[in-house]
Structure formats: structure tokens, C-alpha cells
Amino acid sequence: MTLARTIEVVVRLSREGVIGNYAIAGAVAALNYIEPTFTEDLDILISVEAFENRQSGLLLLGPIEAGLARMGYTRRSDVGYEIEGWPVQFLPVASPLDEEALAQAVEIDLGDGITRARCLRAEHIVAIALKVGRPKDFARIESFLEHSAVDLRALNGVLERHNLMASWRAWCLKAGRKDALADERRT
Amino acid sequence: MNGGHKDYPDNSGIHARKAAGRRQRAALTFAEKLAALDALRARAAPIVRARKARERSRPPG
Asked: What's this model's pTM, rounded to 2 decimal places?
């Protein structure tokens, strides 16, 4: 039971058409760019088409639940579906930022030279962290900047497109950081 | 005391080594980092279990 095996199951769900387009998000996606930090679950961003859409607007996880059950994964806890020992949270795209992040996700190698999984780009992870705005999200942004793990020009574009520039400036002020994007805005 | 002046140790070397450790961990492959997370989670499991037990035993409201 390892996180790599958990991700392999998500890749299978996608190959079998159960979840369609997906991308690893949250702390595990950040792992691709910065040092590992503790997390208790795996977040998977998926398009709303993967959900059963009720007329009431309620999104149900029926198709995913059925797909997982076919593979033998039937346990569910308050933090998500248990797959290979890790809780997995399937998050529907909930904003234009999520939509762009999912569409532009990159493929990464799981280490076996065979399995490739989709993962959010660094600039989208930072923008989403800024938008969510919990202390741990701000710490994640700090880490991306410390490791120069984000393309500042690309980040500037994402923040401008999704009206997050005011949040960025507020975060810089709070963190006592020089605005790393100031030069990008001038050019 | 040294005439009101106190000598504090210089911690910059410690901070530099810590930063180097963070850079090394950030440079691991994705697969290596996944394995590190598995290990981290296993080590933190008793703490997480204790926290959940505390939450369960807390009176509602």
C-alpha cells in the first residue's frame, strides 16, 4: 500500500473512462516541484462530467464509486475513498482557474518508466494556494518561491487572468516579501 | 553579563544547512518523494490516531 499504487489506480480510472480528464492537485502535486510536506490525503481534480449531475445541481460520485468498487475499493471515510491505504478526494472543477489548471496539467513519471500521471503545473498550484488562503497554502507558496520552482512570468499571467493580483500583493505584504512579480508586470 | 552586552551564538550555519537539506529534498525524483511521503505518514500515524481519538472524545458543540 503506497501512494504510487494509489496514483496508479487513479490512472486506471482515467484509462477506463471513469473519470476522464484528471490531475493530481494539492500537497501531492506540489511534491513534483518542492520538498515533501506532510499530507493525509491525495487530491484529484476532475472535470464535472465525471460526476452524476442531478437536476437539483447536486453532483454525485456514483460513477466513480462504481468504478472503484469494480476494482475492489469500497471503503470510504470522512476524508475520501480509501485506495491502497490512502484517502483520495475527488474534487470537481469549481472555477475557471481550476478549469485552466486541469486543461494545462502536465504528465509526470511515477518512477517505473511506464506509468505516467497528470499533475497540475507549478503556477496553478501557487495560484490555487493563494486563492484558498489557509496558513499551510501560504507556506506552500513560500516554498515554491524559495526553491525557484515556479515560472514567475507564467504565474503572473495566471494571477492576472483570474483576478488574483490583489491577493498576491496582500500576501507579499503579509509575508514581508518583495513582490517577485513586479518585474514581470513591467516587461 | 558583559557590561550589558550579551554575546549570542551565530545560528546562520544551522540555517544554511537546513536550507541545503530542503534543496536536497526538493531535488529528489517524484517517485522518491512519494516514498518519502509514505514513510512520513507511517511515522505520523500514532500522532494522527491520537488526535482523532481526542476529537472523538470531545463533547459536541
From this structure: 0.89
